[in-house]
Design a protein that fits this description.
- The protein contains 8 helices and no strands.
- Helix content is about 75%, strand content about 0%.
- It has about 220 residues and is an all-alpha fold.
- Helix 6 crosses helix 8.
């Protein structure tokens, strides 16, 4: 999480600097989407081995107790390459998820301050700003769950069924089941989790004297 959020801030600022103030003002959402996609691309490389071990522990009774014994055992049995077996499907799940997570959040924050909150952000207390962050995070989480759910089901099945391909899983489940099986629970879980993530992240930023997320994208002074 820290890796992803940190990279997002870096790429958002980098792309804004490259685009310039005029283009940023016109295509702000594209900056959010490009920054979040780039951040997730690299973050997933670090996440994939942990995801592989997690799924193996959860879906294979008695396989291992956790990460410390699960990762060496998985490498020994299936080779180091198996840790990245689901990297491409992981990109397919996490990149759209993260683009929605950051893009929807940033735009929802702006919409809440424009249409719901009765005063400008600058006049809101820190508590009020953090409440907006949590609410916007929860709303963004609902969209995240819907967008990423098919790939989430796909990744879980790929890791649980040794030797299975993406085509095999699609044939087994069908597109409708991939998109809807377990979706209601995922919406509740991801909505709450995303709201808490943004609340915690912005709490840290406030404590460090930084503005909460959703402020105007900064560009270099002319």
């Amino acid at each position: 999480g820290a890796f992803k959020f940190g990279l997002y801030e870096y790429f958002k600022k980098t792309y804004a600097d490259m685009a310039g103030e005029e283009l940023v003002a016109k295509y702000q959402t594209l900056i959010f989407l490009a920054g979040s996609a780039s951040a997730e691309f690299f973050a997933d490389m670090a996440l994939s081995p942990f995801e592989a071990v997690k799924v193996a522990v959860q879906t294979r009774p008695g396989f291992a107790k956790g990460l410390t014994d699960g990762m060496p055992k998985l490498i020994q049995q299936e080779g180091a390459g198996t840790l990245f077996k689901s990297l491409v499907p992981l990109w397919g799940r996490q990149i759209p998820y993260t683009m929605m997570k950051f893009g929807a959040f940033e735009n929802t924050v702006q919409a809440l301050y424009k249409y719901v909150v009765p005063k400008p952000r600058e006049e809101c207390t820190k508590t009020e700003q953090l409440t907006v962050s949590f609410a916007a995070g929860y709303i963004a989480g609902v969209f995240c769950a819907v967008v990423s759910h098919p790939a989430d089901n796909l990744v879980s099945k790929l890791n649980a069924q040794k030797g299975a391909t993406v085509g095999d899983i699609v044939k087994q489940m069908g597109w409708y089941a991939l998109a809807t099986r377990g979706l209601g629970l995922r919406i509740i879980m991801i909505g709450t989790l995303t709201g808490l993530q943004w609340g915690i992240y912005d709490s840290f930023k406030v404590a460090a004297g930084l503005p909460t997320t959703g402020a105007k994208v900064a560009t270099p002074a002319k």
